[in-house]
Amino acid sequence: MTTGSLRRRPIKVRTLFLSDIHLGYKHARVRELSEFLQGIDAEHIVLVGDIIDALSLGQRLFWTAEHTNVVRALLAKRRSGARLIYIPGNHDASLAMFAEVLNGQLEVHREWVHRTSRGMRLLVTHGDRFDGIVTCAPWLTRLGDALYYVVVALSHGVNNLRSRMGKPYWPFVERIKLGIGTSLRYIERFEEVATSHAQAEGYDGIVCGHIHRANLRQIDGTVYCNTGDWVESCSALIETLDGELQLLRWPNGLYPARRMTTQLVADAA
Predict the structure, then answer these.
(1) What is the largest CA-CA distance in the chain?
(2) DSSP letter at 83?
(3) Is the residue at 267 inside a domain?
(4) Which pLDDT score, from 0 to 100, does residue 60 have?
(5) Is residue 165 part of a domain?
């Protein structure tokens, strides 16, 4: 979808869930997110952690006008009447800088319970709370981290080139992660643990981020929603005005990649 085609009237949704934007990280897809935000009008915006990447900023100061534009777009929606709720993640657990930038214009909660217009109670949490349960061998984690940064840098360059050529965003990193058995097993285990936690706490489902794997499915009768991210998958979760959950992916932008049905299935990568 081209930028010009996004200039139609924004679609209206009840709730927009975003996570893992990683503002301040040089490979964040902020241009795509800015265009996505132009095409959507939400009554509630829930930021599900890792919005600003304080860890990356602590290692290397990186911030451009495009990163500022994302913050301005979110605050503009707040001024237009949207309720803005923020749940911190592991990369932005320290809110000092974020609070100063946003000047108290959002609600901050460690976790949030969202009730859809259909009456579903969803626990909203970033997902890093499950890190102590879903683990990998230390050597495998170090190796995975090293390879990950290389692949993300390659994906960023490839997609910048595709953008200049007028071609759509390609979730290159996500395809690789899902093709590696160890990575896929980690993702599946994370989804099971997160869903079991929500079920044990009496919720109908859970909304999270953290692992950069957008998905919308049902596990043992409990809804699992992962908003994805804006480094790899360029995705977001919405609740429509009539309470239906949908997973959106850029560049499809205003059209659902996965709708919520009676029997949820995993989103196709």
Answers:
(1) 50
(2) E
(3) no
(4) 79
(5) yes
Q: Is the dihedral of CA 34, 56, 248, 16 positive or negative?
A: negative
In b/e form, how buried is each residue of 177-193, taking b as 16+ CB within 10 angstroms?
beeeeebeebbeebbee
Q: Which two structure tokens, joined as six digits, stand for 199?
A: 């079920």
Whichever domain contains 13, its CATH number is 3.60.21.10
CA dihedral 251, 26, 152, 52 (to 10 degrees): -80
**Burial profile 35-74: b = 16 or more Cβ within 10 angstroms, e = fewer:** bbbebbbbeebbbbbbbbbbbbbeeeeeeeeebeebbebb
- Give the number of domains in the chain: 1
Sign of torsion, CA 78 214 58 54?
positive
Q: What are the start-end ranges of the H helices in the chain?
A: 30-38, 54-59, 65-79, 96-102, 138-164, 172-178, 181-200
Cβ neighbours for 261, distance < 8 A, ≥ 6 positions apart: none
C-alpha separations of 63 from 19, 35, 120, 263 in Å = 18, 18, 38, 42
Question: If DSSP codes are grouped into helix, strand and coil, which group holds residue 195?
Answer: helix
Q: What is the pTM of this model?
A: 0.85
Average confidence (pLDDT) over 12-16: 97
Percent of the chain surpassing pLDDT 90: 55
257/247 Cα distance (integer angstroms): 6
Residue type, 162: R
Assign 16 to helix, strand or coil.
strand
As a whole number, mean pLDDT of residues 158-185 equals: 85
